[in-house]
């Protein structure tokens, strides 16, 4: 039987982690989990924010339940 081991990352490891791809990761229970790419709506909003400095920004409290 082949048993695989998963590397456990500390928060400091996570901050220093560099990936050669464009993927973004989150740290959960010591494991790096690849996040899905941004949606088209998100990319559109980000483009408008970058291109038009006066475009209205949305401030979201990270603890708010939607």
Based on Cα principal axes, name the global outline.
elongated
Secondary structural class: alpha+beta
Task: Flag low-confidence runs.
Answer: none
Mean pLDDT reading: 81
Question: If you had to describe this structure to a student in words, what would you say it looks like?
Answer:
- This protein has a two-stranded antiparallel ribbon with strand order 1-2.
- The protein has 2 helices and 2 strands; from the N terminus they run αββα.
- It is of the alpha+beta class.
- A hairpin with a 2-residue loop joins strand 1 and strand 2.
- The model has no long low-confidence stretch (mean pLDDT 81).
- The termini are far apart.
Topology diagram in text:
Blueprint (H helix, E strand, L loop, with lengths): L10 H6 L8 E4 L2 E4 L5 H12 L15
Antiparallel strand pairs: 1-2
Brief write-up:
This protein is an alpha+beta fold. Helices cover 27% and strands 12% of the residues. It is built from 2 helices and 2 strands, in the order H-E-E-H.
Summary tags:
two-stranded antiparallel sheet, alpha+beta, 2 strands
């Amino acid at each position: 039987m082949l048993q695989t081991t998963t590397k456990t990352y500390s928060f400091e490891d996570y901050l220093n982690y560099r990936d050669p791809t464009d993927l973004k990761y989150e740290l959960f229970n010591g494991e790096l989990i690849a996040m899905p790419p941004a949606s088209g709506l998100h990319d559109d909003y980000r483009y408008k924010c970058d291109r038009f400095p006066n475009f209205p920004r949305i401030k979201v409290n990270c603890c708010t339940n939607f």
